[in-house]
Amino acid sequence: MVLPYEPHSIKFEDVYYSVDMPPEMKDQGVVEDKLVLLKGVTGAFRPGVLTVLMGVGGAGKTTLMDVLAAWLYRPPEVDSETRRMFIEEVMDLI
User: Fold this and answer.
1) Which superkingdom, per the lineage (predicted)?
2) Which of 19, 54, 60, 89 sits at 20 to 30 Å (Cα–Cα) from 66?
């Protein structure tokens, strides 16, 4: 089965992401309520163009991909069989 493919560009600007301050950090004297994990991140992904996300450990690469993935999930009306076929198709392409 070949799933329909529509090329899309993804652009994100000035992305901020924070979580509640961990209690361990509060115990060490940190007074802020939020820990900022992403601050003003901007970028784009274009179809047919290899994009590399680079940075030192702890720079927020995985956090950024997790945040962007929350915006790209398939809608809930897509049944599990279609999801499975989509995943298999992507794996075959890779």
Assistant:
1) Eukaryota
2) 89
What does each of the 94 residues of the chain score in pLDDT, given as a tens digit? 666 777 888 889 999 999 999 999 999 999 999 999 999 999 999 988 888 999 999 999 999 888 887 766 667 777 878 877 877 776 676 5
- Is 36:59 a contact under the CB 8 Å cutoff? no
* Residue 81 DSSP SS3: helix
Beta bridge partners of 18: 36
Question: What φ, ψ does residue 51 adopt, rounded to 5°?
Answer: -115, 130
Closest to 21 measured CA to CA, from 10, 9, 36: 36
pTM of the model: 0.64
Contact between 85 and 4 under an 8 Å Cβ cutoff? The reply is: no
Three-state DSSP class for residue 35: strand
Residue 74 is encoded by which pair of tokens? 């398939």
